[in-house]
Specification:
The complex is a heterodimer of chains A (about 600) and B (about 150).
Chain A: H1 3-68, H2 71-74, H3 79-89, E1 93-99, E2 105-109, H4 111-114, H5 126-134, E3 138-139, E4 143-144, E5 151-152, E6 154-160, E7 166-174, H6 176-187, E8 195-199, E9 205-208, H7 212-216, H8 225-231, E10 236-242, E11 247-256, E12 261-268, H9 269-272, H10 274-320, H11 335-400, H12 406-437, E13 442-446, H13 447-461, E14 467-480, H14 481-498, E15 505-514, E16 517-524, H15 556-566, E17 571-575, E18 581-585, E19 592-600
Parallel strand pairs in A: 14-15
Antiparallel strand pairs in A: 1-2, 1-7, 3-6, 4-5, 6-7, 8-9, 8-12, 10-11, 11-12, 13-14, 14-19, 15-16, 16-18, 17-18
Chain B: E1 6-9, H1 13-25, E2 32-35, H2 38-46, E3 62-65, H3 74-83, E4 92-96, H4 101-110, E5 114-117, H5 122-139
Parallel strand pairs in B: 1-2, 1-3, 3-4, 4-5
Helix pairs in contact in B: 1-5, 2-3
The chains are: A alpha+beta (about 600), B alpha/beta (about 150).
């Protein structure tokens, strides 16, 4: 992956991770805070609501108790007037009823309602039985009013005569609607989301701030955990599931022990935590925006940092193709600046040394060209006069033989012999220069086979000679076969020539190994030479024998040495006067191949 | 056929005389035209300059061509000769002092029929010239292209 992509990816990734972690922590904390705030709110509200309910019921009880003691009521003189006064001056009762001790309705105010009474005998009511039994004021459970046919709660109290005898029962039906309203008044604001409600001791809804229908339907909230807790006499707050409304709620609850009622204030968790969604959205979008901004910033700055590296890379590739003219010129004191300067310095030096090298090469090429044209001229122009000397000399002999005496013929023969020697010298010199100039064509070469081929030719040229010949079968090397053949032809030709005077001449081409190097050798038992002159052997025109003894130009071994040098090999000799000579050579370390040392007789 | 001449392109007067001697010794019947440089050789072959008026359709039976020549080299002559439809198939033998591998390869690439190095020893020289003459003028069968 490219650095310009990788680095920003890493940094942006790190930023994103940080942003996500931060967001998660913020959201978790925010949720905690919101939840606690909602619960605290509910606790405050439920306490206020409970106080209001308690006060409301207490007021109702007090009014009813006071009314029951009024003489006009106690003696049943003008009960309706008293009831009308109570209803007119307090706002707690929907209607007031006076019952006889046996449970029959003596009077109900307002009269309009009394006329709608379904039955006048209320002795079967639970609350009536309780009042009769305890002879004390009783607050009823929720039940259907025989007057309004709607759920209601009545407070009932005995009416006593002056002598303490119970002469009737006075009841007031609570205005449950008011009871629902006072909670909202208590909290000081209209409660639409969070809402309080009251249940009787069985868990039926008596008052509900936001859902009056629950009262109408006598909805049973006893299964709601908050209600259950409060009915068991405990107060508290927490999150729980409301199975009636099928909703998760944050709720606070208190019991009203003297009434056996429960007061609850609750809010759906989803609504209480709704601000969290906005918070989450805010945090996430802020994080995303931040990450994007920082990502762009980092990308730009990294690109700016990495761009010189890209230039360096391109430059290095350019240099790799051989173009040294490139210069970066990137400033700065950072690592890249240092690297760039080092790079520029390097290309500068390389360019200088290459220029020097090119100059040297050009000189060498020039020198080589001169040498080539020199050799070419030698080949063409030195030979032509020799042909003329020999040709016309021969012509002279043929045409003017009868005019020439014996010594003249002899001198002409000497002249012609000289031209032959000169011709050989020129050819040998040409060979020497050619082995230096010609391009090496390196291939696997079997020197044993080459030597065998040369030996066969030598034997064919001098069939009268009997020579014990030993040639190694395989001597594989890597080299230029044509040049190596010239070298071997010289060495074997020498062995042939210098062993000519031996009755039992021996010539051997063999191979030996020394220090891991493969060393070939050509050995004869011929004239040999004095080792004192061994260093002169391989210089051109150096001869250790007279031309009368052994003919030759003195260039052959120089040519051999040049050929082996060109292959990275070398040549040396061991000999003694009249005891033969051995020429050792290597063809170059890298050019060696496998060697088999079978000796052929 | 015997009336067709041999074109000898040779700048060295010694070599020229020796070759002519050798040809005469071996009783070669053909006339020998000698050109002393490459330009003269082309003038003869294409009947221009000194040889304007000659019938260029009468191509030589054999061209003996030296490589090292004044003005135009033997290679240049050979190249021009092979480019021209009239001399495209005229037998050419390079007869030179050189035995450089490069010269040999170039000559054959340019379309010579043969490459012979001039020996120094006169008897050998005679022998070589004789063999060239015998082979190219007697043994070899050229196509009959009379215009």
């Amino acid at each position: 992956m490219r650095l310009t992509v990788k680095l920003p990816a890493i940094v942006v990734g790190a930023i994103l991770l940080t942003a996500i972690a931060g967001s998660v922590v913020s959201i978790v904390i925010g949720r905690q805070v919101l939840r606690q705030a909602a619960l605290d709110d509910n606790v405050n509200n439920v306490n206020l609501y409970a106080s209001a309910v308690r006060f409301y019921v207490a007021s109702a009880r007090s009014i009813l108790a006071t009314t029951a003691e009024l003489p006009q009521l106690r003696n049943f003189a003008r009960p309706r007037e008293v009831a009308a006064l109570v209803l007119a001056h307090s706002d707690v009762f929907e209607y007031v009823t006076l019952l006889t001790p046996d449970g029959r309705v003596a009077m109900q105010e307002p009269r309009a309602l009394e006329e709608r009474l379904s039955h006048r005998d209320l002795s079967f009511s639970a609350w009536f039985g309780e009042v009769r039994r305890t002879d004390r004021m009783v607050v009823s459970d929720l039940h259907i009013s025989p007057t309004t046919q709607r759920p209601t709660i009545v407070i009932a109290t005995p009416v006593r005569a002056a002598d303490g005898r119970t002469v009737g029962i006075l009841t007031g039906a609570l205005k449950l609607g008011e009871l629902s309203e006072i909670g909202s008044l208590a909290s000081g604001r209209p409660a639409r989301i969070e809402s309080g409600y009251v249940t009787d001791r069985r868990g039926l809804i008596i008052a509900h701030q936001t859902r009056p229908s629950y009262v109408e339907n006598q909805t049973d909230f006893s299964a709601v955990p908050s209600v259950g807790e409060a009915l068991a006499g405990k107060d508290g707050s927490g999150e729980n599931f409301n199975p009636i409304e099928n909703e998760q709620k944050l709720a606070a609850y208190v019991p009203l022990p003297d009434l056996g009622w429960a007061v609850v204030y609750s809010v759906p968790t989803a609504i209480a935590l709704a601000p969290l969604d906005a918070l989450t959205r805010g945090i996430l979008s802020a994080s995303a925006a931040l990450a994007a901004l920082m990502g762009i910033g980092v990308f730009v700055s990294i690109r700016r940092t990495v761009a010189p590296i890209a230039r360096l890379t391109t430059a290095a590739q350019t240099v790799a193709t051989g173009d040294l003219n490139i210069r970066l010129g990137i400033g700065g004191n950072d690592e890249i600046g240092t690297l760039s300067r080092a790079f520029d310095q390097m290309t500068g030096r390389l360019q200088e040394s290459r220029a020097a090298l090119e100059e040297k090469t050009a000189q060498l090429v020039e020198a080589n060209k001169e040498l080539e044209s020199f050799s070419y001229s030698v080949s063409h122009d030195l030979r032509a006069p020799l042909r003329a000397i020999d040709g016309f000399g021969q012509r002279l002999l043929e045409v003017c033989r009868d005019k020439l005496d014996a010594s003249a013929v002899h001198y002409l023969d000497r002249i012609r012999a000289g031209t032959q020697i000169m011709a050989h010298l020129i050819d040998d010199l040409l060979d020497l220069s050619r082995v230096s100039r010609t391009k090496l064509n390196i291939q696997p070469v079997n020197l044993g086979a080459v030597a065998q081929r040369i030996a066969t030719e030598l034997q064919r040229d001098e069939p009268q000679r009997r020579i014990a010949l030993s040639i190694v079968k395989d001597g594989s090397v890597h080299g230029d076969e044509r040049l190596l053949e010239i070298a071997l032809r010289n060495l074997l030709g020498n062995a042939w020539k210098f062993s000519a005077k031996r009755e039992h001449a021996r010539v051997e081409f063999g191979v030996t190994r020394q220090d891991g190097n493969t060393i070939f050798f050509v050995r004869d038992n011929g004239a040999g030479f004095d080792m004192a002159y061994a260093d002169k052997l391989f210089a051109p025109f150096q001869r250790l024998h007279s031309a009368v003894e052994f003919p030759g130009t003195g260039i052959g071994l120089a040519t051999v040495r040049r050929i082996l040098q060109r292959h990275g090999g070398r040549i040396w000799a061991e000999a003694a006067m009249d005891q033969g000579a051995t020429f050792y050579f290597t063809v170059g370390k890298g050019a060696e191949h496998g060697i088999k040392t079978d000796i052929a007789g | 056929m015997a009336s067709k001449p041999i074109l000898l392109v040779e700048d060295n007067p010694d070599d020229e005389e020796l070759i002519l001697l050798a040809l005469k010794d071996h009783k070669v019947a053909n006339d020998v035209v000698v050109a002393h440089d490459g330009v003269e050789a082309l003038e003869y072959l294409f009947a221009t300059g000194r040889y304007a008026g000659r019938d260029p359709a009468k191509t030589p039976a054999l061209v003996l061509l030296d490589l090292k020549l004044p003005k135009l080299s033997g290679f240049d002559v050979l190249k021009r000769l092979r480019e021209d439809p009239r001399t495209k198939i005229t037998p050419v033998v390079i007869l030179t002092s050189s035995n450089e591998e490069e010269d040999i390869v170039t000559s054959y690439q340019l379309g010579t029929n043969s490459f012979v190095r001039k020996p120094i020893e006169f008897h050998e020289f005679q022998k070589v010239v004789k063999e060239i003459g015998v082979y190219w003028l007697l043994v070899n069968q050229p196509p009959i292209l009379e215009s």
